Automatic annotation (TrEMBL):
<keyword id="KW-0560">Oxidoreductase</keyword>
<dbReference type="Pfam" id="PF13561">
    <property type="entry name" value="adh_short_C2"/>
</dbReference>
<dbReference type="GO" id="GO:0047512">
    <property type="term" value="F:(S,S)-butanediol dehydrogenase activity"/>
</dbReference>
<dbReference type="InterPro" id="IPR036291">
    <property type="entry name" value="NAD(P)-bd_dom_sf"/>
</dbReference>
<dbReference type="InterPro" id="IPR057326">
    <property type="entry name" value="KR_dom"/>
</dbReference>
<dbReference type="GO" id="GO:0052588">
    <property type="term" value="F:diacetyl reductase ((S)-acetoin forming) (NAD+) activity"/>
</dbReference>
<dbReference type="InterPro" id="IPR002347">
    <property type="entry name" value="SDR_fam"/>
</dbReference>
<feature type="domain" description="Ketoreductase">
    <location>
        <begin position="11"/>
        <end position="187"/>
    </location>
</feature>
<protein>
    <submittedName>
        <fullName>Meso-butanediol dehydrogenase/(S,S)-butanediol dehydrogenase/diacetyl reductase</fullName>
        <ecNumber>1.1.1.-</ecNumber>
        <ecNumber>1.1.1.304</ecNumber>
        <ecNumber>1.1.1.76</ecNumber>
    </submittedName>
</protein>
Length: 258
């Protein structure tokens, strides 16, 4: 999973959206590096699959809808009650909508905003006092789509930009309190949500055409970057966004003609 080892023994990590894809890879990477890991998502069965084989004394699966402020606060409370502390919050859970802006329904806008932005706000408001107590940190799985625009997915991009800017702003507020906040920004990554694209060679080629390294990302490419930002090796890094995109954002956007 990772080339480097990080001493996360004794640290308590909460990963949202930990039941599949990038969230699962991140949770397992922390487990492999000795952390106590809690994962949360709407369905508990995938969370249990993520934690399968790990020591039940150092793991916790919590089913919750984080768009509900009471449930979000309750997740933080359960982690602290069970393990006595919280050292790292990894905000990964997200929804995706791709359609023309004027066709986005009120329900779709409310849903994606609630899942991608409101849930993070609710979690942070309860988690930050705990992270201040432990000198902990936050890592957000953002997106290159939060850095620039994309065709046909304006509302998704807007929510990603919101949480990534929130990280920067709170890094200023909480740096003096000993809490670091950072983001990673993947580009196209093969997960259960994007497998349909990955299996269509012609469609996949339109995505990899923009990637300097010539292949789509994998969840296992993102997890090590999250571990680094959460570790003491990144102790002087806060308020930053680390692109984990194979060089996608190195491009001006002009087509690769070879």
């Amino acid at each position: 999973m990772t080339s480097n080892s990080y001493p996360f023994g004794g640290k308590v990590v909460l990963v949202t959206g930990g039941g599949s894809g990038i969230g699962r890879a991140i949770a397992r990477a922390f487990l492999n590096n000795g952390a106590t890991v809690a994962v949360t998502g709407r369905r508990t069965a995938p969370l249990d699959e993520t934690l399968a084989g790990a020591d039940p004394d150092t793991t916790l699966a919590i089913g919750a809808d984080l768009a509900d402020p009471d449930q979000a606060a309750g997740v933080i409370d359960r982690v602290v009650e069970r393990f006595g502390r919280l050292d790292v919050l990894v905000n990964n859970a997200a929804q995706f909508v791709a359609k023309p802006f004027t066709e986005v329904t009120r329900e779709e806008w409310t849903g994606i905003r609630s899942a991608n932005a409101d849930a993070f706000v609710h979690l942070l408001q309860r988690a930050l006092p705990e992270l201040e107590r432990t000198g902990g940190n936050v890592v957000v799985v953002g997106s290159v789509s939060g850095l620039r625009g994309d065709w046909g997915q304006s509302v998704y991009n807007a929510t990603k930009a919101l949480i990534m800017n929130l990280v920067q702003s709170l890094a200023l507020d909480y740096g003096p309190r000993g809490v670091r906040l950072n983001s990673v920004a993947p580009a196209f990554t093969v997960t259960p949500i994007t497998e349909g694209i990955a299996e269509d060679e012609q469609l996949l080629a339109r995505f990899t055409n923009r990637v300097a390294l010539g292949r789509p990302g994998r969840p296992e490419d993102v997890a090590p970057a999250v571990l680094f930002l959460a570790s003491e090796d990144a102790r002087y890094i806060t308020g930053t966004t680390l692109a984990v995109d194979g060089g996608t954002t190195a491009s001006t956007g002009q087509p690769h003609l070879d």
